[in-house]
Design brief:
This protein is of the alpha/beta class. The chain contains 15 helices and 27 strands. A nine-stranded mixed β-sheet has the order 3-2-11-10-12-13-14-15-16, with helices on both faces. Strand 25 and strand 26 form a beta hairpin. Helix 2 crosses helix 3 and helix 10 packs across helix 11. The longest helix is centred in the N-terminal third of the chain and has 17 residues.
């Protein structure tokens, strides 16, 4: 039997479709229900569905009154605040294409993104980096508050395959790439509701991430709202140690976080009493078996993991209805078509390692890499989009993750290219050669490490400052190690596997 999983397919979205209108499709029926609570140990701020929809529709009208038109791009420079999802949905409601970008990006990083995406406007909060030398109009974040009260605008309906939003992901080329997604991408997420979340209208889902993280936007907000559930988001400044209190106090039935958050919570709370919690959800990086088992021992609850990427979102997961067998990431979500391919793009036999691929018909698959048709075409092998994950499919369809085909690093759920970090550090005047790799500093804890050669030893703190001025914090190496020479393979390329095995400095 070949490593192909076919399970029908999802019902296609309507011919006339708007992603934001789909997300808020239940708002009229649930006008008085709490859609969102921003929670902290001291207080909770609540938004009802009616007020949420009114704000989104008003922002859509306000953005158009400011001169933006359907198809224009809006660069988002907002922090961890509710205005982030409101502006995101408001733009999509109006047919404007938002570009959500991390507030942690430095001026050089956001300048490059602005140059590539050519936005018609920027919506910005104070103290968030802006493109250097840009003449693009900047709308202050405070203007969103005024827009929320504008007379509502109807949603811009249209082809579900037209662009809806652009996100940035690190690529193997060494530079982050814009990923263009269609309105239909939200439609595909319904396959996760059943085969990862087990999500229902009466659920209360607490997501540990910030508003401006794509994992939070999708799993923590868009999906709960689309089904009519309640989203719980920690206020800015809430620590992982405080999350158990919030889970109990707000009767959370589902909890979503990157694996690192689970580890931090367990460090402070070896036993947890979470009576309303049904199960946890993890994504963004591989969930170590030790963390999974420790969480179950502490709570009596299971964590279900999902595997995905920015280009497709998640497509493979465990779920309450079909838990992942030990040592695997789970099963393809029903409606997905997945395959495990060899180097020539042919399906391998089950039980044989290969590269995981998603069928091009998947409604969650990106439209393209922005202005990069060559890079887009390179990801396809015939009818299959190649993910770059090395996996093996068992006889029953369960898939085990074996690693990446490339050298991508993972920093707290963000995929980071070593080439991007190396290109920045290579500009340091005293560094002769530089290489980066993800290294394990202790059991279940991995960080980005930088290995360099230089004429004299360099001060680690000075190197940290140099990196922080040029890279978002999550991309910065946590460890700097000076080596006599960098290890190389027989072909002369950097041997990153040797670096990953190197003991921490």
């Amino acid at each position: 039997m070949t490593s192909i999983h076919r399970d029908g397919g999802p019902v296609p979205p309507p011919d006339s479709f708007n992603m934001a209108a789909h997300v808020l499709g239940r708002a009229g029926q649930l006008a008085d229900k709490t859609a969102l609570a921003i929670v902290s140990p001291a207080r909770a701020t609540r938004w009802r569905y009616g007020a949420l929809a009114q704000a989104v529709e008003g922002i859509a009208a306000g953005l158009m009154e400011s001169g933006l038109q359907p198809g224009d791009r809006l660069l988002m420079r907002l922090g961890n605040e509710v205005e982030f999802p409101l502006a995101y949905l408001g733009a999509i409601w109006a047919g404007i294409v938002p570009i959500p970008a991390s507030a942690a990006l430095t001026v050089p990083e956001i300048s490059r993104i602005a140059a590539e995406t050519r936005p018609a406007a920027i919506i910005a909060a104070p103290d968030i980096s802006l493109p250097e030398g840009s003449d693009v109009p900047v709308l202050p974040a405070l203007a969103l508050r005024e827009m929320e009260t504008c007379p509502p605008a109807p949603p811009a309906m249209g082809d579900p395959n037209r662009p809806a939003y652009i996100v940035y992901t690190s690529g193997t080329s060494g530079q982050p790439r814009g990923v263009v997604h269609a309105h239909r991408a939200i439609w595909a997420r319904q396959m996760m509701w059943r085969d990862w979340y087990d999500l229902h209208e009466d659920d209360r889902l607490l997501h540990a991430g910030a508003f401006n993280w794509t994992f939070t936007l999708g799993t923590g907000l868009m999906d709960p709202w689309a089904i009519g559930a309640t989203a719980l988001i920690p206020a800015d400044g809430v620590s992982p140690a405080q999350l158990p209190l919030l889970l109990r106090r707000h009767d959370a039935t589902l909890f979503a976080a990157a694996p690192g958050v689970y580890r931090q919570m367990l460090r402070e709370h070896p036993a947890l009493d979470l009576p309303k919690l049904r199960h946890g959800l993890a994504a963004g990086e591989r969930l170590p078996d030790a963390t999974r088992k420790a969480w179950h021992a502490a709570t009596g609850r299971v964590v279900h993991e999902a595997l995905g990427m920015s280009e497709v979102s998640t497509y493979l997961s465990g779920s309450p209805g079909r838990p992942a067998p030990e040592g695997t990431s789970g099963y393809p979500q029903r409606g997905r078509r997945l395959a495990v391919l060899d180097g020539d793009g042919a399906p391998v036999a089950r039980g044989t390692p290969g590269t995981l691929a998603v069928h091009r018909s998947d409604p969650g698959l990106m439209l393209e890499y922005l202005d990069a048709p060559g890079d887009t075409a390179a990801r396809y092998r015939g009818e299959w989009f190649v993910t770059g994950d090395t996996v093996v499919m068992a006889a029953d369809g369960a898939i085990s993750f074996l690693g990446r085909d490339d050298d991508m690093m993972n920093a707290g759920g963000y995929r980071v290219s070593p080439l991007e970090v190396e290109a920045v550090l290579a500009t340091h005047p005293d560094i002769s050669e530089i290489a980066c790799a993800e290294i394990e500093v202790k059991a279940d804890t991995r960080v980005i490490g930088a290995f360099y050669t230089s004429a004299v030893p360099l001060d680690a703190q000075a190197l940290e400052i140099f990196a922080a001025e040029r890279l978002a914090r999550y991309k910065c190496p946590r460890i700097f190690t000076r080596l006599p020479t960098l290890p190389r393979a027989g072909n002369g390329k950097i041997d990153r596997k040797s670096l990953r095995r190197a003991p921490p400095a």
